[in-house]
Amino acid sequence: MDEAQIYKKLDRIKEIPTLPTIVFELNQHLQNPETSIAKVSETIEKDQAMALKILKLVNSAFYGFRSKVSDIKNAVVLLGFNAVRNAIVSVSIINTLPKTLLFQDFEMIDFWKHSLAVAVTSKNIAQKAGMESPDNCFVGGLLHDIGKVIMAQYFKDDFAKVWSRMQNEYLPFHEAEQQELPVDHTKIGAYLADRWALPNGLIDAIRWHHDFQPNNGNAGFMINIHLADILVNSYDEHPDCTLDMGAMHPEVVKFLMVQMENTSDWYANLAGEIEAAHAFFLADEF
Ligand SMILES: [Fe+2]
Ligand SMILES: [Fe+2]
Q1: 243: domain CATH number?
Q2: Ligand 2 (single-atom ion) residues, CB below 5 Å
Q3: Most-buried pick from 8, 34, 93, 199 (CB within 10 A)?
C-alpha cells in the first residue's frame, strides 16, 4: 500500500474511534470567554460515569487535595477549566480505544503505561520550564503514539512487518517502521487527531514527535512532547545512564541544558506521579 492508499483506507473506516459528545460540548463552552462554572458543570453532570470519574480524580493521590470534594462544581473550581477538559479528554480517549488488540505481544496496557509516563513527564517539563498550559502537554503526551494503535487495529499486515523487523533487528519501533512502510505512526496519529478536531498544536506535536521541527509555529509544545518521549524511553532502558545527547537535535540539547538542569534527578522524582497516573487511569480499565 502506498501513502495515498493508506489515507484512503483510513477515510473509509467507519468504525474509527470517535470521542464522546461531551468533549465537543465542553470545547464549545470553553471557547466562549463568557462561559460559567455552572454551564461547564452541567455539561459534565449529564454524563454520570464521567462525572464520577472526575470526582474520583480530584480526590485521588494524583491531585492530592486535602479535603474531600463531593460535587462537580467544586471540582471544576479546584482544577480549573483547562485541567477538567483535559482530564475528560484523557479519560475519553482511554475508554474509546480497544482494551485488547489481538496482536502478538503488543499490549494496550503497556501502550498506555508508556503514554501516561510521557504525559506526566510532559506536564512536568511544562511546569519546570514555565511553559503555558501544562495540562495540554499531558494530553499531548497521552496521544503522541496513538497512530500505533490505529496501525495495529486496521493495518495488521503492515504492523506485523514492522513488529517482526523491530524484534529481529533490535531496532526502535520507529526505525523499523521507516524501513518497512511509506507512512508511520506519527502521520497516522496526526491524521486521526485532525479527524477528532483536536487543536493544531496537538496535531503538530503528534506528527513530529520523532523529528523535531524548530521552525514550526508550535515548536514550544513540540519540543516538550519530543523530549518527554526521549526521557521516558532512555530512562526505561538505562535507568542510571546519562542521555545520548549526540542523537538529539541541537535545539533540544539547548532546551535541556538551559531549562532542565539535573534532569536525571528530576526525572527520578516523577516516578510516584507516574504510578499515580497509572493507578487512576488504568486500574478500572484493565
Ligand atoms: Fe512514537
Ligand atoms: Fe513514544
Answers
A1: 1.10.3210.10
A2: 145, 229
A3: 93
